[in-house]
Every structure is written in C-alpha cells, then in structure tokens.
C-alpha cells in the first residue's frame, strides 16, 4: 500500500503537521511512487517537495544538497534500507535549516517483520527498528531513541509514536501494510534547534512582560493595574 497516502488522514488530525512540520520547501526521500507533494492542497504551508530517488544519488549522503537549506525532510520507510542509518540521519539532518523538521517513518520490527529475519516482506530492508528494547529477536535491531543521539544537541524530538491503531495482533503472520488501515510503523519528528537554543540548552521564552489586556485575552483572568 501507499504508506504516505495512508498517513495523510491521520496527520491532518494533528495540526502540527499542517502548521509546523510539513511547511516550506522540503525533500521527499524515496517518495517517487507516493510523494507527499501530491497532497500539497491539504497542507497549505507546503510550498514544494523535491523527490530524491536513487537516480539522484545515494540517499544516505544527499551529495549536492546544501547544508541548512531545507525547511523539512520527509522519508517514509527509507531508513531501514540505508547501509548506515546513523550516517543517513546525520546527512538528512545536515540539510535542514535551523528550526526545520525531519519527518520519518520506519517499520516497527514486531508489527512488520513479526519475529522473522531476513525480511519475508521486503528484501530491501537491512535493519529493524523499535522505539526501545533491552532485548530483541532481531539480529539487526536498532532502538530509535539510541540512534537519534548521533544528531547531538541540536536534535529536538517533537513526536515519537508507534502507529499501531489499525494493526490486528491476533491475525496469523502476514504483511498487514497490504491492508488499507495498518501502518505497522513508528513515526519520528525531529526539529533542528537553532544555535541560540543549542547554547542555552533548551527552548526558552524571551524575557518580557505581558500587558493586563494580553493576560486577559490569553487566560480570561483580569489583572489589576498597580495604583500609583
């Protein structure tokens, strides 16, 4: 099934995808058969998404794409095909501008591979993924929480979700992504921290003072103005 298309309705229920994550000019790694740009009318902030396929070069390195040049990078079920997922993440993160977002999905190893390696369902897969496990049946298992640490202090994880709402755990083993409802994946959204946040060690609101009118509009609470 077309996994990017399958994710559209779910993503539209989360405003951040429309107002923050898929906004501006981006890169859609491996999206030729099911591009995110096909749904630009549903994501009005999405101004363009260049598709990167093998004919453009090794997607692990994105050779020729300038540092800090893109508002978002979208990669649906591609990281598990890379020779070195950590190296791929470094380059996908490299091309993001500060404040931009990387939107990734990877197969969840239990829901997709279902305890069998090599993959029965996709022979291009080189790795399996979990959010975090201390023990896995897979000899090539990677914990996303550990892998993301290669990005360093600029990595700001905004979303990490196991996409199992359409998955049926009671069925015999088969590729449930062939159904119209099961994603069998993990979704990860990482924001690239600007330099000021990196130095400060976090995203901190600026100093200042709201007027009594601002406080009332934001909270509905009246603030008395001190008498002179």
Explain how this protein is built:
With 228 residues, this protein is α/β, with parallel strands linked by helices. It has one domain (3-201): Rossmann fold (3-Layer(aba) Sandwich), CATH 3.40.50. The protein contains seven helices and eight strands, in the order H-H-E-E-E-H-E-H-E-E-H-E-E-H-H. The chain has helices spanning 3-12, 15-21, 85-94, 109-112, 144-147, 195-200, 212-219; strands spanning 24-29, 46-52, 70-76, 96-107, 128-130, 141-143, 155-163, 185-192. The radius of gyration is 20 Å and the shape is globular.
Distance between the termini: 69 Å
Categorize the overall geometry. globular
Radius of gyration: 20 Å
Query: What do the pLDDT scores average to?
Result: 96
| Low-pLDDT stretches | none
Biggest β-sheet strands, sense, barrel: 6 strands, mixed
Strand arrangement across the biggest beta sheet: 2-1-3-4-8-7
Based on the structure given, which CATH architecture is correct? Answer: 3-Layer(aba) Sandwich
Oligomer: single chain
User: In the CATH hierarchy, what is the superfamily?
Assistant: Vaccinia Virus protein VP39
